[in-house]
Write a structure and sequence with these properties.
Length: about 260
């Protein structure tokens, strides 16, 4: 495990008089799989939105790979190598799966008219490389037979796999997964977790995931961070966090005792 890749420092996000995130502070080390847990309304997804640039914090700092990224737009943060998925998948249902993939690829000269006119060969070459990369990833995640189908025809689990494959088009160093197991059957869920571990082991990808399935959290995370009422109340190894009285009271309930 390498040094910390992400640091969240005293982040605050308000909606009117409600503190959705209230001074959250933690760090994620490079090459780790870290779980972010907490009861509904704890501020987890709002924190994801702030970290990845979909919302702006009212106060605090987000540092990724040694650079302050708080306040930068989502696309700029993604270009730095930190991307996220969503609890409700964001596949473009009326487009083929392969086009959902290619849209995510950066550095496409064909996106701009000037690039097509001034460098047509480079545009065609890059487009070919992007499609080859997309098909390679779809094959890796068992979706190659669905490449030309509309994304809206995929099952919930297949859409989760598509989202993971699509974020890899950006070649990220860090991926934030928002409830990856939600709405996924156990077979596809198991495959998704296998891919997460493979990416960590083979490419050094760092993961921060929001998850309510405690079996997944305890069995697949190096560290666990627990939030409640917008604040971090526990941070450590899975077993230590699970037995923390503050976590039991705030999240797990008496059945975990």
């Amino acid at each position: 495990m390498t040094d910390e890749l992400l640091r969240v420092e005293e982040v605050v996000k308000r909606f009117g008089g409600v503190h959705a995130v209230d001074g959250a502070t933690f760090a994620v080390r490079g090459g780790s799989i870290t779980a972010l847990i907490g009861p509904n309304g704890a501020g987890k997804t709002t924190l994801f939105n702030v970290v990845t640039g979909f919302q702006r914090a009212d106060r605090g700092e987000v540092v990724y790979d040694g650079r302050t990224v708080g306040g930068r737009p989502a696309h700029a943060i993604a270009r730095c190598g930190m991307v996220r998925t969503f609890q409700i998948t964001k596949a473009l249902a009326a487009m083929p799966v392969i086009d959902n993939m290619t849209l995510a690829a950066p550095r496409q000269p064909g996106e701009h008219l000037a690039g097509v006119i001034a460098r047509p060969y480079a545009a065609r070459k890059r487009e070919k490389a992007v499609r080859e990369r997309a098909r390679e990833l779809l094959a890796r995640y068992g979706l190659e037979q669905k490449a030309d189908d509309y994304a809206g025809t995929l099952s919930g689990g297949q859409r989760k796999l598509l989202e993971l494959a699509r974020v890899l088009m950006v070649e990220p160093r860090m991926v934030l997964l928002d409830e990856p197991m939600a709405g996924v059957n156990p077979t596809l869920g198991g495959k998704l977790l296998e891919h997460v571990h493979a990416l960590r082991e083979q490419e050094g990808t760092t993961f921060l995931l929001i998850e309510h399935d405690m079996e997944v959290v305890m069995g697949h995370s190096d560290r666990v961070i627990c939030m409640a009422q917008g604040r971090v109340i526990a941070d450590g190894e899975p077993e230590a966090v699970r037995s923390d009285p503050r976590v039991i009271d705030a999240y797990l309930g008496g059945a975990a005792r």
